[in-house]
Amino acid sequence: MLDAAFRSSRARRVVITTEHARLTTWLASDLEELAALHAEPATMRYMRSGVESQEQVARRLNRYLQEQDQRGWTRWRVEDETGRLIGRAGFELTEEHGRRHRELGYLLAPAVWGKRLASELARDLVAWHRAHPDPLLDDELIAYSFPDNTASRRILEKMGFAVTGEDTLDGHRLVRYAVS
To answer: Do residues 169 and 48 touch, judged by C-beta distance below 8 A?
Structure first.
């Protein structure tokens, strides 16, 4: 399931510490927890992929591990104060119209919804993006939201993102946001 290169023991590294969570790098041993998160229909409601199988999650985790090694950023593991996985948040590489951007994204377990954690993560991720420019990318940070995901849209707007249009990605109509 996981690439042999990532089965070796690695040390987890904290990338961002917020008031109520830590964003850390992934380990191959995170597969079961991540697969459980991605198997939950409520959690995956506003994800373009929908609910994912363990095989799909293994491919995703391989990608996160490779991106961290190659670029120094990815969608990181979000853990609570006990070290328990409560979500993922960070960036994906997006290419559109000949331009390359970081795309902000976050996914949290339903148990932590409504506790302002998504706002906290979005704020600190925007700050991280600004503090870590990538010369190969456009400075504009983008994000997508399903039109009816009002909670996520409010968070993006509160963080200074503005609607720049609508796109259809993976068969889903999405609202495109950007912040410089």
So the answer is: yes
pTM of full prediction above 0.85: yes
Cβ neighbours around 75 below 10 Å, total: 23
Number of H helices, E strands in the chain: 5, 8
What spatial distance separates the first Cα and last Cα of the chain, rounded to whole Å? Answer: 38
Q: Domain range holding 159?
A: 4-179
Q: How far apart are CA 94 and CA 30, in angstroms?
A: 25
Quick: pLDDT tens for 80-136: 999 999 999 999 999 988 999 999 999 999 999 999 999 999 999 999 999 999 999
Non-local CB neighbours of 150 within 8 Å, separated by 6+ positions: none
Domain count, the chain: 1
Contact assessment for residue 93 and residue 103, using Cβ atoms and an 8 Å cutoff: yes
Q: Contact 79/21 with Cβ under 8 angstroms?
A: yes
Look at residue 26 and give its three-state secondary structure.
coil
Q: Can you tell me the distance from the alpha carbon of 110 to that of 42, in angstroms, rounded to the nearest whole number?
A: 7
* CATH code for the domain of 68: 3.40.630.30
Q: How far apart, in whole angstroms, are the C-alpha atoms of residue 92 and residue 86?
A: 19
| Cα(63)–Cα(49) distance, integer angstroms | 15
